[in-house]
């Protein structure tokens, strides 16, 4: 009789253990479509060809719709951080890939409904930004985002930096190589963006403060400097006169131009 009792007691242990194992298996194999829902909810992101699981999934094609246009992101993959679910702020490490275009970073959905991006590296060709600029440009833009928070289309916070490598501008007569530049990025405290631009390498010294206000408009102010012969040889003086005024010539022979432009 004692053997039968012992066997029954063992069975009562196996039943809850079996239930636990079943739940673990079921949770581990939650379909990737659930993760796709988390990534696309209120973000403007669209996914197709979704495979994998909630925890580790991928999409063969992703695109991001903004108020201006829709951007193709190429292949997208994600890894959901399980412990983040306990804080009701699910976070996933997300990566996208296209030729000359990529994103690697952490995306979180805050309980308030805001979207947070942390520790992200972004690289895009200049053509993706061309619609926002008054003159044709070429080059590659790279950015590191320490943190960014959006609620809908409203920017709530931003901290990061931006670099423009292989920078070229079209003067109307030809393409002008101007070097490489960088900017420190932050929010302006009123849903807009502030950027402080400076040169990394090239023939021009740049010290420009840019503010993009919400919902539209902004201002660019500061100074450009370089040998006047450089601008003359590139037939760039007419273009320069559109947004800058000649100010002074320093002891190194560089001509300084004052910039004060409303957007």
Automatic annotation (TrEMBL):
InterPro entries reported in the protein's UniProt record: T2SS_protein-GspN (IPR022792)
Chief location category: membrane
User: What GO CC annotations are associated with the protein?
Assistant: plasma membrane; type II protein secretion system complex
Note one Pfam family from the annotation. Answer: T2SSN
Question: Which locations, inside or outside the cell, does it occupy?
Answer: Cell inner membrane
Per the record, the similarity remark reads:
Belongs to the GSP N family.
Could you identify this protein by its name?
Type II secretion system protein N
Q: Which organism is it from?
A: Cellvibrio mixtus
> What lineage is on file?
Bacteria, Pseudomonadati, Pseudomonadota, Gammaproteobacteria, Cellvibrionales
């Amino acid at each position: 009789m004692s053997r039968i009792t012992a066997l029954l007691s063992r069975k009562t242990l196996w039943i809850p253990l079996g239930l636990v194992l079943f739940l673990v298996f079921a949770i581990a194999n939650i379909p990737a479509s659930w993760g796709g829902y988390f990534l696309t909810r209120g973000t403007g992101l669209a996914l197709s060809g979704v495979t994998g699981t909630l925890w580790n999934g991928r999409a063969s094609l992703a695109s991001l719709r903004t108020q201006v246009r829709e951007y193709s992101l190429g292949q997208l993959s994600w890894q959901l951080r399980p412990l983040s679910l306990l804080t009701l702020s699910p976070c996933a490490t997300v990566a996208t890939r296209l030729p000359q275009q990529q994103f690697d970073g952490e995306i979180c959905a805050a309980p308030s409904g805001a979207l947070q991006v942390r520790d992200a590296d972004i690289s895009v060709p200049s053509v993706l930004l061309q619609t926002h600029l008054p003159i044709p440009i070429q080059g590659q833009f790279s950015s590191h985002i320490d943190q960014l928070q959006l609620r809908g289309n409203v920017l709530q916070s931003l901290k990061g930096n931006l670099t423009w490598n292989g920078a070229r501008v079209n003067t109307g007569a030809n393409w002008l190589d101007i070097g490489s530049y960088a900017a420190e990025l932050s929010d302006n405290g009123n849903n807009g963006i502030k950027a402080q631009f400076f040169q990394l390498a090239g023939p021009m010294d740049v010290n420009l403060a840019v503010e993009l206000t919400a919902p539209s408009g902004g201002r660019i102010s500061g100074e450009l400097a370089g040998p006047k012969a450089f601008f003359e040889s590139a037939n760039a003086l007419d273009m320069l006169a559109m947004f800058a005024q000649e100010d002074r010539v320093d002891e190194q022979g560089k001509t300084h131009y004052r910039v004060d432009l409303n957007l």
